[in-house]
Amino acid sequence: MTVTQRETSHNPTPEADGPVGVWLNGARGSVATTAITGLLALRAGMADSTGCVTDTGMLRDAPLADWTDMVVGGHDIVDTPLEKKAESLVDSGVIPAPVLAAVRGSLPAVERDLRTGYDARTETGSLADVIDRLAGDIEEFRDRHGLSRVVVINVSSTEPPVDHRPEYDDLDALTRSLADPDDKVLPASSVVAYAAFRAGCGFVDFTPSTGARLPALEMMAQRERVPFAGSDGKTGETLLRTALAPMFTCRALHVLSWAGVNLLGGGDGATLEDPRNARSKLSSKSGVLPALLGEDVTAPLHIDNVPDLGDHKTAWDHVSFEGFLGVRMSMQLTWSGVDSTLAAPLVLDLARLTAAAHRAGHVGAIEELGFFFKDPIGSDEHALAEQAQVLSTWAGGLDGRCAD
């Protein structure tokens, strides 16, 4: 069966209510395992929702799925059991040991909903066949659990940027290329986005990879009447920059340079040690300051792999600025955080919000979710306070009425 032959009548109506599925691509990774463990703890009443924006006053009135109505599944290309991965995150200080002890008995049920993902290094068939398999896994998950809708969230490793191809501008041409087993026309993140849309699901890219950011895939989202959002979750240094940079502009202070160094280990550190992968991350991070300061600014940025840091991340920034009468001043700051602990609650927030947007009939890019991203799709706004206001206003209007 080719991707052009699949039926799309499974897509639920905007009015349908029921439990929501969260399908994680990269489900056995650190961010996903932390999100899964955290959701199980929230469902069991064993943890509070600190870090989850959707449980704050800003969004508490939005019509969102309850934690107890969220079911998790996913794809991954590795086979490390969730329980073993969670134990390693306890050892590294990411997941508290009492939390894992409280939810350990629930992990096997999630394990049963994990499937083998797409690995471009080993796949010999066509991408059309891969997409059919991935979409079929998601559909089976939705049907088996009686879910009203599923949100697919990409939390896998960062990919290199892709070179433009004509097929990326034409959905029909792209679909034809997918049938050629010798043409891996799409990067893995875009294969996942295509499969999500094919299954009638919303899609979120928490990484700086290409994902749904191709004109042909935007066309597909419109055709399938599904929403998508991204890209690259804003959890640390960039979060801080989007809060602080507006301070300089609103006080008429001239920023001369803003240098940054990021030190991290774990899987992300190893992935970003490859300059090809680092290009995607650096591109995502580097556009923020010019947008916020209104001009280009000298802003060298480095990412260094320090394996012993594991999931702990440190970012150091040095800001040189000019005040009244040309007097030079500076600000130095250090951000130290646990990457997966910062990211996981945002993944859960995005699942709730994207599901609510789908229910309300939102189609295409959800630019109002730019609050969560370094490089927000559909929006040039980067200032955190303004993004928060946009998000709050929009989410408060998700009352089940069609957004289009």
Automatic annotation (TrEMBL):
Region Disordered: list its residue ranges: 1-21
Q: Where is the composition biased (Polar residues)?
A: 1-12
* Name of protein: Myo-inositol-1-phosphate synthase
The UniProt entry's GO biological process terms, in alphabetical order, are: inositol biosynthetic process; phospholipid biosynthetic process
Give the PANTHER family listed for this entry: MYO-INOSITOL-1 PHOSPHATE SYNTHASE
What is the species listed in this Swiss-Prot or TrEMBL entry?
A: Micromonospora humi
Tell me its family: Belongs to the myo-inositol 1-phosphate synthase family.
One GO MF term, please? Answer: inositol-3-phosphate synthase activity
Among InterPro entries, the record links this protein to: Myo-inos-1-P_Synthase, Myo-inos-1-P_Synthase_GAPDH, NAD(P)-bd_dom_sf
